Amino acid sequence: MKDITLGQGLGKIIFGLNRDEISQLIGEPSEIEKMDGDKDSGAMEAWHYDDQHLSLSFEEDCNWKLTSITSASPELLFEGIDLIGLSQGEVMEQMEVFNLGEFDMEDLSSEILLEQSLAANSDFSLNLFFDHDILTEIQWGPFWDDEAEMPMWPEKQ
């Protein structure tokens, strides 16, 4: 089991680590997905670790540091609770218990992907993805300094 720490990371995988540090820590990814930047943001890389149901994202604008973690692993714990596979209602009740405040709900459904939704909380850099009312993925990142418009990197351990 692995514990999500909001603003911090996942176990030894800490936001702000660079690609070399991540490679040394958990090895090479199954796949590297490269995305070009545009006028609003720089390029991005997503490292997928398929066996672990884990994706790590690095952004050019942040000097290729780890800026988000996405997981669909049922072994992931959030405050000691396995949320993957729970209904949207159950998950949102837990978010209330954790005092995480308001979530913005967004319908992501399309003709191809039916009944897809997102619960986003920018205060805690947390996104919850639901498929047919069931939590399928959790994505989180470092806390954000709105004034500086920069991530607040956690201290390396």
What does the secondary structure layout of this molecule look like, with pairings?
Blueprint: E1 2-5, E2 9-10, E3 13-14, H1 19-26, E4 31-35, E5 44-49, E6 54-59, E7 65-71, E8 76-78, H2 88-97, E9 104-107, E10 116-121, E11 126-131, E12 134-140, E13 143-145, E14 150-152
Sum this structure up briefly:
With 157 residues, the chain is mainly beta.
Helix content: 10-25%
Order of helices and strands: EEEHEEEEEHEEEEEE
Write out the strand line-up for the largest beta sheet, numbering strands in chain order. Answer: 4-5-6-7-12-11-10-9
- Using the coordinates shown, work out and report the CATH topology: protein yfey like fold
Mean pLDDT: 92
Q: Which descriptor suits the 3D outline?
A: globular
At CATH level 2, the architecture is Sandwich
Low-confidence runs of at least 5 consecutive residues: none
Distance, first to last CA: 20 Å
Q: Which structural category fits the helices and strands?
A: mainly beta
Give the number of helices. 2
What's the number of extended β-strand segments?
14
| Beta-strand residue percentage | 35-45%
CATH secondary-structure class: Mainly Beta
Main sheet: strands, sense, barrel: 8 strands, antiparallel
Radius of gyration: 16 Å
Q: In the residues, how many domains can be counted?
A: 1
